Amino acid sequence: MKNIIILLALAAIFPDPDYESAVLYLTGASSLEDLDESTLQHYRDLSLRPLDINGAGRSRLQASGLFNAFQLASIMDWRERSGDILSYVELGLIDGFSPEYAEALRPFTCLVSNASPGAPRKLRLHHDLMLRGAIKENDGHAYAAGVKYKASFGETAEINWASRTTYSNPSIGVGTVSGAYYGRRWLGKVVLGHFNARFGQGLALWSGFSMSHYSSVSSFRRNGTGFTPTGSFNPDHCGVAADINLGRWGIGAAYSFSGKLPMASVSWCGRSMSAGVTASTKGVSADFKLGLKNTGVFGEFAWNGEAAAVAGVIWTPVYGSKYGLLLSWAKGVPEVVSGAGLKGLDAVAAVSNKQIRMMVKYAPELALGPLSIVPSLRLAAKKTDAWRFEGRGELKLSLGAWALNSRLDVVRCKSLSWLANSEAGYSTERFRLWLRGTLFCVDEWVDRIYVYERDAPGNFNVPAYYGRGWSTSLTGAWKPSRKHSVYFRISYVEYPWVTDNKPLKTEVKLQYNLSL
What we know:
Elements: H1 2-13, H2 19-27, H3 37-48, E1 51-52, H4 58-63, H5 69-82, H6 88-92, H7 99-104, E2 109-110, E3 125-137, E4 141-153, E5 157-164, E6 176-182, E7 187-198, E8 226-229, E9 237-246, E10 249-256, E11 261-269, E12 273-280, E13 283-292, E14 295-303, E15 307-315, E16 322-330, E17 333-342, E18 345-352, E19 356-362, E20 366-368, E21 371-383, E22 387-399, E23 402-412, E24 416-427, E25 431-442, E26 449-450, E27 464-465, E28 467-478, E29 484-494, E30 505-515
Parallel strand pairs: 1-2
Antiparallel strand pairs: 3-4, 3-30, 4-5, 5-6, 6-7, 7-8, 7-9, 9-10, 10-11, 11-12, 12-13, 13-14, 14-15, 15-16, 16-17, 17-18, 18-19, 19-21, 20-21, 21-22, 22-23, 23-24, 24-25, 25-28, 26-27, 28-29, 29-30
C-alpha cells in the first residue's frame, strides 16, 4: 500500500501526458483556449493533490466538480454495499460511469483502499506550498510574485491561502483565505472565508467563469458543486457557508460579507432524478436532471430581474456516441444549440437572434507500434456583425519520452490572419523540457488568435497573438525528490514586421512547489 501511495504522489506532481485531454473530456471544452483561469487552476490543483474517491464524503465529492448527482449516488451506494473501489476498471462498471469517463478521472483522483466497508481510515496531514516569481521586459521592467499554501487533513478538512502581485498591480494584500470541514454523515461541510457558489446550470448562482460557447455535446450540461472553499486568486464571495445531508435531501445556506448577499439552496436526489431550488437577494431558480435509458434531460428556470431558462437533452444510443439539443433564453435572447459527439468527432451549431456559431473538430487517435499519432482538425464559424471563420490543424507525435507537436491556425474576419507553431518535448519521471517556436501574422485586433501556452502549475497562460512577428519559449520542470518540484519558463516575443514599433517582450518565470 505504501508503494502505491508513493506512485500516486509522483503521478500527481508530474501529471501524465493525458492530462490535457482529460481536462477537455471532463469539461466538455473542445480546446484549452475555451477555458478560464479558475477552471484550469482547479484541475491543476486536483492533479497536484488527487481526490481520494474512497475516503471522501458526499459533500467533498460534489465539491470536486468531477461527478454529477447520479454518479455521486452510485459511488455512495457502491461503497456502502461493496466497500472501497479498488480500480478504475471497477469504477467504469458502476452505474453512471463509463470506462472512458473513469480513465479521464485518473489524473485528478486516487483510490486508496481499506478494503472492507466501514473500515477505519487513516487520515494524513498534507502540506502544499507554491512560490513563484516573474520578470518581464516590455518597454520597461515589471515584476510579479505569488504564493499559495494548502493544508489538508485527508478528505476531512482543508485550509487555503493565496496572494499575488501582478505586472500592473505590484502591491500585495492578504489575498484569499479559506477553510473547510467536511462531514461524512448529516453534516456536509462548513466553509469559512472565501468560497464559491455554483448551482444548477448557472442561471442564478455560479461563481466565476461560466462557459457558454457550448463547444461539444458534453458541455451542454453543467455539474454544480454547491458551496466550496477556494484557493483562487480571484474569489467571488467571502463569508460563511454550510450544508447538511438528510438522506436524499440536501440543505445549504451561505452569507457573503463582500457582497452582502445571503444564499440558500434545497436539493433532492433520487435514483433517476434530481432537483433543486436556489435563492439569493439577487434571484431565484429551480433546476432538475432526469436520467432515462440512454437519455439525460435537464433544465433550469430562473428569475434574476428578468426571466431566464435553459433546457436540454443528451441522447447516448451506443457507447462512444452522443447527440444533444439545448434551448435557452437569457437577457431576452433565445438560442437553439444542437450537437453530435462520435468517436474522435465533435460538431456543434448554435443559432440565436444575435449570432450564429458552428464548430467541427475531428481528432482520431492512431498508433504505429510505439509511435502515437494524434492528428486534429477544427473548423469554426461565427457571425455577429460580421463572419469570423477559423481553421486549426494539429499533429501530435510521441515516441517514448520524446514528443513533437505542430499547429496551424488560419482566421478570416476583417482580414486573413495565420499562426503556426511547433514544439519538441522530452519527458521523464523527474525531468521535462519543452521548446516551442511560433510565427504569426495578425493585422487586425478582431482577428486575434488565442493559443494555450505551457507554463508552471497554477499559471493561466492563453495569450492573444496580434501583429506580425515571432516568439519562442522554453518551459521545463525538475523534480529532484518526491517533496520538491521546480518549474521555469523563458519566453521572447518580437515584432520585426510591423510599422508601429511595437516593443519586444521578454519574460522569465520561476516556481517552486513543496509537497509534504
